[in-house]
Amino acid sequence: MSALPPRPSALSEPPFYVGYLPVPKPLAAFLWLAVPIALSILAIVAIATARSQRDPGGAVWNDAKAREFHGIFIARPYPMLLVRPTEGDTSKPDSLKRDTTSSSELFLLVEMGKHAGRDGLSAMDGKPVVASGWTLERDGRRMIELEPDAKALALQETSISVPPTPVIVPRGRVTLQGEIVDSKCYLGAMKPGEGKTHKACATLCIRGGIPPVLVTRDENEARVYYLLVDPSGGPLDSGAWPFIGDPVEVTGDFELLGEFRVLKLSPRDISRR
Amino acid sequence: MSTGYVAVQWSRHKRLYDASVAIGIAIYLGAFVGVSKAFWAGEHGISDEVILIRALGSCAIVLLHIILCIGPLARLDPRFIPILYNRRHLGVITFLVALAHATVAVGYYHGFGVLNPFRSLLTSNTNFSSLRAFPFEILGLLALLIMFLMAATSHDFWLKNLSASTWKRLHMLVYFAYGLLIGHVALGALQADRGSIGPALMFSGLCIVSGLHIAAGLKEYRKDRGAGTLVVDAGEWVDVGAPDEIPTDRARTVCAPKGERIAVFRSAGSISAVTNICAHQGGPIGEGKVIDGCITCPWHGWQYRPQDGCSPPPFKEKIATYQVRIVGGRVQVNARPLPPGTPTTPALASGGLS
Fold first, then answer.
1. Complex confidence, ipTM
2. Could you point out which of A117, B137, B161, B223 has its C-alpha 20 to 30 Å from the C-alpha of B29?
3. B-contacting residues of A 95-154, CB under 8 Å?
4. Are residues A136 and A215 in the same domain?
């Protein structure tokens, strides 16, 4: 049996803390130092984490005041409004003004929340209407969120200057890489309106009728948008929903509908990258 | 220690503790929101709800890291024990912050649609076979449920009624919840942002938590290996050392052959031995001190009489005791634990029995 060496640390008298007794002075001094240091570390971590967020990109939801738009209603594949651009439209920030010389502008029409479509839309197809709501815009692409009032989309009684109806121009089969997003969030309702954390929201939006869009990048890293429809030209098939919000590669028939790039797509032609 | 149950046994220390936590959370959320609004404004502004979701979520993760670090820090340096004292309040507050994160996230991302938000949460993404598309929300939901379970049973009522060992096992689920949250963040926010600062912070947090646990474990291992495992008398008696090697009103902890730790105290000229495990939360009694004639646990101040392991009246807690003797100027403790609350005859520090 050998003797155990005495432990110097055990022989000294460290301050002993009991929660219901006064804090020993050396411990109190330590805590007065440790707590502010801990609070400072919290602030540093908060700042670093906040700074690490990605720029969601320039997009605006003009939800302060509703505006009226006059144009031709298009029911398929998604509710849209064909409008002759207003001379000197000052509602858009310069950075969002689009680079186009088109004589008409197509607005996607959506409802409040994660919905699109309302009763009686097919009866308005191809007719002049007045729509009242708030615009969302990104990269020059604009959308109207209709006011909840039933009269927010109504047939126009008086005649208007009818913009030329866009012609569908087939451009052939293409393979593209990008992300399927819901157009409403991506155009400014939620920022960011893309990526993994937004996947569930985008799925819910598209399920509710918000038009799906494939966002790709061109050779200059500029965003290019493709409105997604099924091969017959109707709303995108629900088989595509599991791929929403993921990096995907898709193959489909590319068409131009006026200024809109439209991609006819079957779910079997979508794969995760 | 309590003879009855009250919601919170407030003390000045608990008030200061909770106030510090509240200030810390306010600083974190304020700094996060302030920086987010300052750097991403106008057309490039991040949605207010997204900022709030991120601020609350990251705050909960940071608080969980602090909770996980407190235990090993207190093992490595007793000066951190005051932070351990009220850790359960920090746990409940962390759960509430995480719940606020989940509430805003579910409402914002899963609300306003054609599905019930909870149905959307559970069914909107079922890509369990794809790491890229994995429904990270489920991991966060499971972690939140565990945190709820822990917060709901954090009161001493549950500690008493579930038994200390069951309660401890239940609350060890915090490590499982931590793993789930790492998955929740890695497969969610980090995958979406694709930056380098987020992963670096998470990895640093994981390294700090793991490193502190390993360091505390090594310290305990070395302490057990070097503290009186010398067995005499057919393995029944364990050598503790000379009486004066035990500091007055303090203990020396030794390991019995089967590994259980025994705290041998010297106080008022007598030497007594009790289990090293407090009946409350399993605190290391051997690191306690004899105050007013009672062994006092360093974690929450629960007290036991050295001679019989019973809490002083009106309290009724009991811990196991051990026989001690002094042979040839050496303190020896019998490795067989006596039933909790069994009176023993303390040995006199000057030799012999009292």
1. 0.89
2. B137
3. 95-96, 112-115
4. no
